[in-house]
């Protein structure tokens, strides 16, 4: 009877010790997904690791479909998903996985989830937030029409703030907006 209690005690101690070894301090510090956006939206997933932990990758999902991945070496991968057009840097910094959604439309609305995974143990944490596409207000439309460089300046500001390389943004709504303004303002 005593040996059985000792055996159970050893097993319990081993389980508690093993659980302690496998507990990770992997955390998503900040998930930034705007609640509403009309033209483009900055998404960012900031995470923290312990010194002895190695990142496997950071994945972005829209409504359960993976569309973007930051690898541990800083490289990125993109996957086609309806409603998701991206502007990203070729390399990302450790501790963050930012991207800019461009050319937003109704299909861009939905839940965006970030998943951070560790190497070897493949432990992961996730955090999600919803984004809603909203039509630009008439004030925004007029402002964009009066200052055609506004979109480019805003884009350059995001690029420099998040160290994104020079790539072109495509704004399919500008031609429609310009046409509507020319009709409305006459």
From TrEMBL:
Residues 43-126 form the Ig-like domain. It comes from the Eukaryota. The chain crosses the membrane at residues 169-185. Keywords: Membrane, Transmembrane, Transmembrane helix. PROSITE patterns: IG_LIKE. PANTHER family: BEAT PROTEIN, BEATEN PATH IIIA, ISOFORM D-RELATED. This is Ig-like domain-containing protein. It comes from Cryptolaemus montrouzieri.
């Amino acid at each position: 009877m005593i040996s059985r209690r000792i055996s159970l005690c050893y097993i319990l101690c081993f389980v508690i010790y093993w659980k302690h070894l496998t507990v990770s301090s992997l955390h998503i510090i900040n998930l930034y997904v705007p609640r509403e956006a009309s033209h483009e939206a900055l998404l960012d997933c900031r995470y923290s690791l312990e010194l002895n932990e190695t990142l496997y990758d950071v994945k972005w999902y829209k409504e359960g479909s993976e569309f973007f991945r930051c690898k541990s070496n800083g490289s990125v991968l993109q996957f086609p998903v309806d409603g998701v057009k991206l502007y990203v840097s070729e390399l990302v910094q450790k501790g963050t996985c930012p991207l800019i959604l461009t050319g937003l439309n109704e299909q861009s609305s939905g839940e965006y989830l970030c998943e951070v995974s560790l190497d070897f143990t493949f432990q992961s944490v996730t955090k999600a937030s919803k984004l809603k596409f909203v039509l630009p207000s008439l004030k925004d439309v007029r402002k964009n029409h009066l200052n055609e460089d506004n979109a480019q300046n805003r884009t350059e500001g995001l690029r420099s703030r998040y160290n994104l390389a020079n790539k072109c943004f495509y704004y399919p709504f500008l031609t429609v907006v310009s046409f509507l303004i020319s009709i409305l303002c006459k």
